[in-house]
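note to self — DONT lose this again. spent like an hour looking for the file last time. sequence + predicted structure for the chain T wanted, 416 res
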Amino acid sequence: MLDKGTPTRRRSRTTLVVLMLVVLAPGAWAQIEYETLHKFHLRGYGGNEPRSALTFDQTGNLYGTTIGGGVNGGGTVFKLTPNKDGSWSESVLYSFCGLAYCADGWLPFAGLVFDHAGSLYGTTLAGGTLGSASGYGTVFKLTPNKDGTWSESVLYSFCDCGDGSAPYAGVIFDQAGNLYGTTAGGGFSDFGATVFKLEPNRDGSWGESVLYTFCSLSNCRDGSQPEAGLTFDRAGNLYGTTEFGGPYGAGVVFKLTQNPDGRWKEEVVFPSFGSASGLIFDQAGDLYGAAGYPGIVFELMPTAYGRWKEKVLHRFTGGKDGGLPMGVILDSAGNVYGTAFFGGSPICKPYGCGVVFKLAPNSKGEWKETVLHDFFDDPGSNPAAALIFDAAGNLYGTTYGNTSGPNVGSVFEITP
């Protein structure tokens, strides 16, 4: 719940600056409004330090994860419900165990996905029943009960025995109800990591299969250590990124295609530059993503020869325009929105508090960046995940927080 005596929809300094700009220049920035929906606290059971994107349900509630806090200190799955007065109330659906060897998992870094029945699915970086004392991570499911509580079940525990370990990213569904994801470690090449598939069995259990194991060396051409999630194209091929490996040792954008015999073949689509963020398709089949520090936002366009052509939409400086982009999304008009973990206000030393940005194309094919919000460590800073839209086009996201002080994360809304 929000603190008593604290405005439930607190406007940031940016909103005040925006109002001043509207007075000085009518029409300029008039629609941009930033509001904090929830502020996490270091003490208490509500969770803290969210590093994942949010998820909406069909009635407009928001869901997410935190890597800290909860009853046991091992992170939470939380829900934010809008109230009639415009405020939002937080409830904790599940608190993970605070130790790495706990069977239910520990440290949920990634966001969540719903199935058709209203259950939530996610991953934990560590913990699980098959691991050693350090734990190798899990894929879990949260099922709503009739009394309003939620029950957690572990669909799969990684054992670092060729199946992978340490899933930083979440999972996605295919049309048949199978789950797909990545691990940043493990696999038959040890630290090379994997792309995996989970398939439900008739008895309610889930079976795991490894679709691809990456090479474990930083100079391996196929890439190494995928920390971001996957995305499907219309033909059922999988796309993702790795943080290391490739021609320059700084990661790749890869594609996995299923052969007639059921095996999957990997193809390097394009060398990247330390990309730990996910990818997104536009209607034309072009891929968009973010990579590196200070970082770039890029577009990959397929050519008639089966190769991909890259276009850099923006190069960050690490200053006022942001640095270390954490992922991008597209609106229906083709504009790109995203977050940068660093840059912006220098209050958060040494690299800045982070920003929310927009990239808009002009008639010449050039892209212009606009900073929609500059975080000031009050009450949020350092957004560590991508944004999501609601049906009205408003943006929602999380901030990780400045752990050197009392700021341990928040949930925000931006009306662009």
